[in-house]
Known about the structure:
Bound molecules: adenosine-5'-triphosphate, iron/sulfur cluster, magnesium ion
Structural class: alpha/beta
Distance between the termini: 24 Å
CATH class: Alpha Beta
Number of domains: 1
Shape: globular
CATH superfamily: P-loop containing nucleotide triphosphate hydrolases
Number of helices: 12
Oligomer: single chain
CATH topology: Rossmann fold
Helix content: 25-40%
Amino acid sequence: MNQIIELPGRAERAATDASVLLDCRNLSRTFIVGGSLFSKAKELRAVDRVNVSVRRGEVLAIVGESGSGKTTLGRMMLGILPPTSGEMLLDGKPVSGIDRKTLARRIQPIFQDPYSSLNPRKTVAQIIGLPLAVHGIEAGAARDRRVEEIMERVGLSRRLIHSYPNQLSGGQRQRVAIARALVVQPEIVVCDEPTSALDVSVQAQILNLLVDLRNEFNLTYIFISHDLGVVEYIADQLAVMYMGQVVEAGPRHEVLEQRRHPYTQALLGSVLTPDPSLGLPDLQIGRGFPDIMHPPSGCHFHPRCPSAMPVCSAVEPPAFRDSAGLVHCHLFSGEGSSATRPIAQ
Ligand SMILES: Nc1ncnc2c1ncn2[C@@H]1O[C@H](COP(=O)(O)OP(=O)(O)OP(=O)(O)O)[C@@H](O)[C@H]1O
Ligand code: SF4
Ligand SMILES: [Mg+2]
Protein backbone atom coordinates (compact mmCIF):
# COMPACT_ATOMS: atom_id res chain seq x y z
CA MET A 1 0.00 0.00 0.00
CA ASN A 2 2.84 2.35 -0.71
CA GLN A 3 1.28 3.93 -3.78
CA ILE A 4 -1.27 6.61 -3.04
CA ILE A 5 -3.63 7.97 -5.67
CA GLU A 6 -4.74 11.27 -4.31
CA LEU A 7 -5.60 14.82 -5.09
CA PRO A 8 -2.45 16.90 -5.60
CA GLY A 9 -1.32 18.87 -2.62
CA ARG A 10 -2.95 16.72 0.08
CA ALA A 11 0.32 15.95 1.83
CA GLU A 12 1.23 19.61 1.85
CA ARG A 13 -2.19 20.52 3.23
CA ALA A 14 -1.83 18.02 6.06
CA ALA A 15 1.54 19.49 6.94
CA THR A 16 0.22 22.99 7.21
CA ASP A 17 -3.32 22.35 8.44
CA ALA A 18 -3.15 23.85 11.90
CA SER A 19 -6.09 21.80 13.12
CA VAL A 20 -4.36 18.45 12.51
CA LEU A 21 -3.12 17.53 15.98
CA LEU A 22 -1.64 14.08 15.47
CA ASP A 23 -0.50 12.93 12.06
CA CYS A 24 0.85 9.41 11.50
CA ARG A 25 2.74 8.99 8.28
CA ASN A 26 3.64 5.61 6.88
CA LEU A 27 3.89 4.30 10.41
CA SER A 28 5.10 0.70 10.74
CA ARG A 29 6.01 -1.59 13.58
CA THR A 30 7.47 -5.04 13.23
CA PHE A 31 8.31 -7.53 15.97
CA ILE A 32 10.91 -10.25 15.72
CA VAL A 33 9.37 -13.43 17.05
CA GLY A 34 10.59 -16.97 17.58
CA GLY A 35 14.17 -17.86 16.89
CA SER A 36 15.79 -20.81 18.60
CA LEU A 37 18.26 -23.54 17.86
CA PHE A 38 15.66 -25.21 15.67
CA SER A 39 13.73 -22.32 14.12
CA LYS A 40 14.65 -19.06 12.51
CA ALA A 41 13.43 -15.79 13.97
CA LYS A 42 10.65 -14.26 11.89
CA GLU A 43 9.36 -10.78 11.34
CA LEU A 44 5.80 -10.00 12.36
CA ARG A 45 4.44 -6.87 10.73
CA ALA A 46 1.92 -5.68 13.34
CA VAL A 47 1.41 -2.21 11.83
CA ASP A 48 2.18 -1.65 8.20
CA ARG A 49 2.57 1.80 6.63
CA VAL A 50 -0.38 3.41 8.35
CA ASN A 51 -1.45 6.94 7.42
CA VAL A 52 -4.02 8.42 9.79
CA SER A 53 -4.48 11.81 11.35
CA VAL A 54 -6.76 13.37 13.90
CA ARG A 55 -7.79 16.99 14.24
CA ARG A 56 -7.94 18.80 17.55
CA GLY A 57 -11.16 18.07 19.41
CA GLU A 58 -12.11 15.16 17.20
CA VAL A 59 -12.51 11.46 17.94
CA LEU A 60 -10.67 9.07 15.65
CA ALA A 61 -11.98 5.55 16.14
CA ILE A 62 -9.87 2.58 15.11
CA VAL A 63 -11.71 -0.68 14.48
CA GLY A 64 -10.73 -4.13 13.25
CA GLU A 65 -10.59 -7.75 14.28
CA SER A 66 -8.43 -9.02 17.09
CA GLY A 67 -4.77 -8.96 16.06
CA SER A 68 -5.23 -6.30 13.38
CA GLY A 69 -2.73 -3.97 15.06
CA LYS A 70 -4.96 -1.47 16.88
CA THR A 71 -3.18 -1.59 20.23
CA THR A 72 0.25 -1.55 18.61
CA LEU A 73 -0.74 1.60 16.71
CA GLY A 74 -2.14 3.13 19.91
CA ARG A 75 1.06 2.36 21.82
CA MET A 76 3.12 4.08 19.14
CA MET A 77 0.83 7.10 19.35
CA LEU A 78 1.43 7.18 23.11
CA GLY A 79 5.17 7.13 22.55
CA ILE A 80 5.61 3.92 24.60
CA LEU A 81 6.54 1.83 21.55
CA PRO A 82 8.93 3.25 18.97
CA PRO A 83 7.92 2.81 15.32
CA THR A 84 10.14 0.66 13.13
CA SER A 85 9.68 3.21 10.37
CA GLY A 86 7.54 6.20 9.47
CA GLU A 87 6.93 9.26 11.56
CA MET A 88 4.38 10.99 13.75
CA LEU A 89 3.82 14.70 13.97
CA LEU A 90 2.22 16.31 17.01
CA ASP A 91 0.93 19.76 16.19
CA GLY A 92 3.19 19.72 13.13
CA LYS A 93 6.36 18.78 15.04
CA PRO A 94 8.05 15.37 14.86
CA VAL A 95 7.25 13.34 17.97
CA SER A 96 10.77 11.93 17.81
CA GLY A 97 12.01 15.37 18.89
CA ILE A 98 9.70 15.62 21.90
CA ASP A 99 11.02 14.23 25.18
CA ARG A 100 9.16 11.30 26.74
CA LYS A 101 7.93 13.25 29.75
CA THR A 102 6.47 16.11 27.73
CA LEU A 103 4.82 13.64 25.40
CA ALA A 104 3.34 11.75 28.35
CA ARG A 105 1.78 14.95 29.61
CA ARG A 106 0.25 15.73 26.22
CA ILE A 107 -0.94 12.21 25.35
CA GLN A 108 -2.43 9.98 28.04
CA PRO A 109 -3.80 6.43 27.92
CA ILE A 110 -6.92 4.75 29.21
CA PHE A 111 -6.62 0.98 28.88
CA GLN A 112 -9.16 -1.76 28.60
CA ASP A 113 -8.60 -3.46 31.89
CA PRO A 114 -8.84 -1.22 34.96
CA TYR A 115 -8.00 -4.24 37.13
CA SER A 116 -4.48 -4.58 35.82
CA SER A 117 -3.78 -0.95 34.91
CA LEU A 118 -4.04 0.31 38.52
CA ASN A 119 -1.38 -0.40 41.13
CA PRO A 120 -3.15 -2.56 43.77
CA ARG A 121 -0.90 -1.25 46.57
CA LYS A 122 -1.75 2.43 46.06
CA THR A 123 -4.81 4.33 47.21
CA VAL A 124 -7.07 6.21 44.82
CA ALA A 125 -5.48 9.50 45.93
CA GLN A 126 -1.98 8.15 45.33
CA ILE A 127 -2.88 6.72 41.92
CA ILE A 128 -4.46 9.93 40.67
CA GLY A 129 -1.82 12.12 42.33
CA LEU A 130 1.16 10.23 40.89
CA PRO A 131 1.13 11.90 37.43
CA LEU A 132 1.01 15.30 39.17
CA ALA A 133 4.09 14.35 41.21
CA VAL A 134 5.90 12.98 38.14
CA HIS A 135 5.26 16.17 36.20
CA GLY A 136 5.88 18.46 39.19
CA ILE A 137 2.38 19.93 39.05
CA GLU A 138 1.22 21.49 42.31
CA ALA A 139 2.20 20.18 45.75
CA GLY A 140 0.73 19.61 49.18
CA ALA A 141 -2.81 20.85 49.70
CA ALA A 142 -3.09 22.26 46.16
CA ARG A 143 -2.29 18.85 44.71
CA ASP A 144 -4.85 17.19 47.02
CA ARG A 145 -7.45 19.70 45.90
CA ARG A 146 -6.71 18.95 42.29
CA VAL A 147 -7.12 15.23 42.92
CA GLU A 148 -10.44 15.83 44.66
CA GLU A 149 -11.66 18.08 41.85
CA ILE A 150 -10.95 15.54 39.14
CA MET A 151 -12.48 12.76 41.27
CA GLU A 152 -15.65 14.76 41.53
CA ARG A 153 -15.61 15.48 37.81
CA VAL A 154 -15.40 11.79 36.87
CA GLY A 155 -18.14 10.84 39.34
CA LEU A 156 -16.02 9.33 42.13
CA SER A 157 -17.21 9.92 45.65
CA ARG A 158 -14.72 11.66 47.94
CA ARG A 159 -15.13 8.91 50.49
CA LEU A 160 -13.21 6.61 48.12
CA ILE A 161 -10.07 8.72 48.26
CA HIS A 162 -8.22 6.35 50.59
CA SER A 163 -9.63 3.15 49.06
CA TYR A 164 -7.53 0.58 47.22
CA PRO A 165 -8.42 -0.71 43.74
CA ASN A 166 -9.64 -4.06 45.08
CA GLN A 167 -12.24 -2.21 47.16
CA LEU A 168 -13.76 -0.62 44.05
CA SER A 169 -16.19 -1.86 41.41
CA GLY A 170 -15.07 -2.21 37.78
CA GLY A 171 -16.79 1.05 36.83
CA GLN A 172 -15.19 2.90 39.76
CA ARG A 173 -11.76 1.57 38.79
CA GLN A 174 -12.21 2.78 35.24
CA ARG A 175 -13.23 6.20 36.61
CA VAL A 176 -9.97 6.22 38.60
CA ALA A 177 -8.06 5.40 35.39
CA ILE A 178 -9.88 8.23 33.59
CA ALA A 179 -9.12 10.65 36.43
CA ARG A 180 -5.45 9.63 36.39
CA ALA A 181 -5.31 10.27 32.64
CA LEU A 182 -7.03 13.65 32.79
CA VAL A 183 -5.47 15.12 35.91
CA VAL A 184 -2.46 16.39 33.93
CA GLN A 185 -4.78 18.01 31.36
CA PRO A 186 -3.59 16.16 28.25
CA GLU A 187 -4.54 17.16 24.73
CA ILE A 188 -4.99 13.62 23.44
CA VAL A 189 -6.31 10.53 25.18
CA VAL A 190 -5.73 7.11 23.63
CA CYS A 191 -8.65 4.98 24.82
CA ASP A 192 -7.94 1.30 24.12
CA GLU A 193 -11.22 -0.62 24.49
CA PRO A 194 -12.08 1.48 27.56
CA THR A 195 -15.47 -0.11 28.16
CA SER A 196 -15.16 -3.67 26.92
CA ALA A 197 -13.98 -5.19 30.22
CA LEU A 198 -16.92 -3.64 32.10
CA ASP A 199 -20.39 -4.97 32.81
CA VAL A 200 -22.81 -4.06 30.06
CA SER A 201 -24.81 -1.95 32.52
CA VAL A 202 -21.74 0.18 33.31
CA GLN A 203 -20.44 0.53 29.76
CA ALA A 204 -22.92 3.26 28.77
CA GLN A 205 -22.16 5.29 31.91
CA ILE A 206 -18.42 5.28 31.21
CA LEU A 207 -18.96 6.05 27.55
CA ASN A 208 -21.22 8.99 28.36
CA LEU A 209 -18.66 10.23 30.86
CA LEU A 210 -15.94 10.11 28.18
CA VAL A 211 -18.17 12.05 25.79
CA ASP A 212 -18.94 14.70 28.45
CA LEU A 213 -15.26 15.06 29.38
CA ARG A 214 -14.24 15.39 25.78
CA ASN A 215 -16.70 18.25 25.29
CA GLU A 216 -15.79 19.94 28.56
CA PHE A 217 -12.01 19.80 28.08
CA ASN A 218 -11.90 19.90 24.25
CA LEU A 219 -10.05 16.60 24.30
CA THR A 220 -8.95 14.69 21.23
CA TYR A 221 -9.58 10.95 21.45
CA ILE A 222 -8.03 8.02 19.69
CA PHE A 223 -10.71 5.49 20.41
CA ILE A 224 -9.88 1.83 19.83
CA SER A 225 -12.89 -0.45 19.89
CA HIS A 226 -14.35 -3.75 18.77
CA ASP A 227 -17.83 -2.44 19.29
CA LEU A 228 -19.19 -0.73 16.21
CA GLY A 229 -22.25 0.45 18.13
CA VAL A 230 -19.93 2.41 20.42
CA VAL A 231 -17.91 3.71 17.49
CA GLU A 232 -21.05 4.91 15.74
CA TYR A 233 -21.95 6.85 18.85
CA ILE A 234 -18.62 8.48 19.59
CA ALA A 235 -16.45 8.76 16.45
CA ASP A 236 -15.94 11.71 14.10
CA GLN A 237 -13.41 9.87 11.96
CA LEU A 238 -13.07 6.15 11.48
CA ALA A 239 -10.12 3.98 10.45
CA VAL A 240 -10.70 0.30 9.66
CA MET A 241 -7.64 -1.92 10.16
CA TYR A 242 -6.95 -5.31 8.66
CA MET A 243 -3.68 -7.19 9.23
CA GLY A 244 -1.77 -4.12 10.28
CA GLN A 245 -3.03 -1.90 7.49
CA VAL A 246 -5.69 0.78 7.39
CA VAL A 247 -7.91 -0.44 4.56
CA GLU A 248 -10.48 2.33 4.78
CA ALA A 249 -10.63 5.64 6.64
CA GLY A 250 -12.71 8.79 6.57
CA PRO A 251 -15.48 10.72 8.25
CA ARG A 252 -17.60 8.31 10.30
CA HIS A 253 -20.85 8.87 8.43
CA GLU A 254 -19.15 8.38 5.04
CA VAL A 255 -17.44 5.16 6.07
CA LEU A 256 -20.54 3.76 7.77
CA GLU A 257 -22.93 4.71 4.98
CA GLN A 258 -20.80 4.00 1.93
CA ARG A 259 -18.95 0.92 3.23
CA ARG A 260 -16.66 1.01 0.22
CA HIS A 261 -14.12 -1.58 1.30
CA PRO A 262 -15.41 -5.19 1.28
CA TYR A 263 -13.87 -5.71 4.73
CA THR A 264 -15.77 -2.71 6.10
CA GLN A 265 -18.94 -4.24 4.65
CA ALA A 266 -18.23 -7.52 6.45
CA LEU A 267 -17.40 -5.77 9.68
CA LEU A 268 -20.54 -3.65 9.61
CA GLY A 269 -22.61 -6.67 8.70
CA SER A 270 -21.60 -8.05 12.07
CA VAL A 271 -22.90 -5.16 14.18
CA LEU A 272 -26.03 -6.88 15.35
CA THR A 273 -24.27 -9.16 17.77
CA PRO A 274 -26.47 -10.39 20.60
CA ASP A 275 -23.71 -9.94 23.16
CA PRO A 276 -21.17 -7.17 22.54
CA SER A 277 -18.83 -8.67 25.15
CA LEU A 278 -18.23 -11.57 22.78
CA GLY A 279 -16.27 -9.23 20.52
CA LEU A 280 -16.61 -9.59 16.81
CA PRO A 281 -18.98 -12.37 15.81
CA ASP A 282 -18.59 -14.54 12.72
CA LEU A 283 -18.09 -12.09 9.90
CA GLN A 284 -19.61 -14.45 7.33
CA ILE A 285 -16.52 -14.13 5.19
CA GLY A 286 -15.27 -17.64 5.53
CA ARG A 287 -11.89 -18.70 6.85
CA GLY A 288 -10.64 -16.91 9.95
CA PHE A 289 -8.05 -14.21 10.27
CA PRO A 290 -5.01 -15.38 8.25
CA ASP A 291 -1.66 -16.13 9.85
CA ILE A 292 -0.03 -12.74 10.31
CA MET A 293 3.41 -14.38 10.03
CA HIS A 294 2.49 -15.32 6.45
CA PRO A 295 0.26 -12.55 5.13
CA PRO A 296 -1.54 -13.35 1.87
CA SER A 297 0.03 -11.83 -1.25
CA GLY A 298 -1.40 -8.75 -2.95
CA CYS A 299 -4.39 -7.56 -0.97
CA HIS A 300 -4.15 -9.33 2.41
CA PHE A 301 -7.94 -9.64 2.46
CA HIS A 302 -8.21 -11.53 -0.83
CA PRO A 303 -8.68 -15.08 0.59
CA ARG A 304 -11.79 -13.89 2.43
CA CYS A 305 -13.09 -11.25 0.05
CA PRO A 306 -16.37 -11.95 -1.74
CA SER A 307 -15.42 -9.43 -4.48
CA ALA A 308 -11.85 -10.68 -5.10
CA MET A 309 -10.54 -10.49 -8.67
CA PRO A 310 -7.40 -12.08 -10.18
CA VAL A 311 -5.41 -8.88 -9.68
CA CYS A 312 -6.13 -8.93 -5.94
CA SER A 313 -3.81 -11.82 -5.10
CA ALA A 314 -1.04 -10.48 -7.32
CA VAL A 315 -0.90 -6.74 -6.69
CA GLU A 316 -1.17 -4.77 -3.50
CA PRO A 317 -4.03 -2.30 -3.95
CA PRO A 318 -3.07 1.35 -3.94
CA ALA A 319 -4.92 3.87 -1.82
CA PHE A 320 -7.68 5.87 -3.41
CA ARG A 321 -8.56 9.11 -1.69
CA ASP A 322 -11.44 11.52 -2.17
CA SER A 323 -13.72 13.66 -0.01
CA ALA A 324 -15.32 10.51 1.48
CA GLY A 325 -11.94 9.30 2.73
CA LEU A 326 -9.37 6.72 1.86
CA VAL A 327 -9.88 3.19 0.56
CA HIS A 328 -7.28 0.56 -0.36
CA CYS A 329 -9.02 -1.72 -2.83
CA HIS A 330 -8.68 -2.63 -6.49
CA LEU A 331 -12.38 -1.96 -6.98
CA PHE A 332 -11.39 1.69 -6.78
CA SER A 333 -8.04 1.62 -8.52
CA GLY A 334 -8.78 0.19 -11.97
CA GLU A 335 -9.07 2.07 -15.24
CA GLY A 336 -12.28 4.08 -15.33
CA SER A 337 -13.18 3.26 -11.72
CA SER A 338 -14.65 5.96 -9.60
CA ALA A 339 -14.61 6.37 -5.85
CA THR A 340 -18.28 7.23 -5.93
CA ARG A 341 -19.27 4.17 -7.93
CA PRO A 342 -21.13 1.76 -5.66
CA ILE A 343 -19.66 -1.69 -5.22
CA ALA A 344 -21.82 -4.44 -6.66
CA GLN A 345 -23.24 -6.50 -3.80
N1 LIG B 1 5.33 -7.23 21.90
C1 LIG B 1 4.94 -8.03 20.90
N2 LIG B 1 5.76 -9.02 20.45
C2 LIG B 1 5.39 -9.82 19.43
N3 LIG B 1 4.21 -9.70 18.77
C3 LIG B 1 3.37 -8.73 19.19
C4 LIG B 1 3.68 -7.85 20.26
N4 LIG B 1 2.64 -6.98 20.44
C5 LIG B 1 1.72 -7.32 19.52
N5 LIG B 1 2.14 -8.36 18.77
C6 LIG B 1 1.43 -9.00 17.66
O1 LIG B 1 1.05 -7.97 16.76
C7 LIG B 1 -0.22 -8.24 16.21
C8 LIG B 1 -1.14 -7.07 16.48
O2 LIG B 1 -1.41 -7.05 17.88
P1 LIG B 1 -2.31 -5.93 18.56
O3 LIG B 1 -2.31 -6.21 20.02
O4 LIG B 1 -1.82 -4.59 18.14
O5 LIG B 1 -3.74 -6.20 17.91
P2 LIG B 1 -5.16 -5.64 18.33
O6 LIG B 1 -5.83 -5.19 17.07
O7 LIG B 1 -5.03 -4.62 19.41
O8 LIG B 1 -5.90 -6.93 18.87
P3 LIG B 1 -7.02 -7.07 20.04
O9 LIG B 1 -8.31 -6.58 19.41
O10 LIG B 1 -7.04 -8.51 20.35
O11 LIG B 1 -6.62 -6.22 21.20
C9 LIG B 1 -0.69 -9.55 16.83
O12 LIG B 1 -0.39 -10.59 15.94
C10 LIG B 1 0.13 -9.64 18.08
O13 LIG B 1 0.33 -10.98 18.45
S1 SF4 C 1 -8.45 -5.42 -3.40
FE1 SF4 C 1 -9.62 -7.18 -4.14
S2 SF4 C 1 -9.48 -8.71 -2.50
FE2 SF4 C 1 -8.88 -6.74 -1.64
S3 SF4 C 1 -10.74 -5.93 -0.78
FE3 SF4 C 1 -10.60 -5.07 -2.84
S4 SF4 C 1 -11.75 -6.52 -4.14
FE4 SF4 C 1 -11.37 -7.55 -2.19
MG1 LIG D 1 -5.74 -4.52 21.38
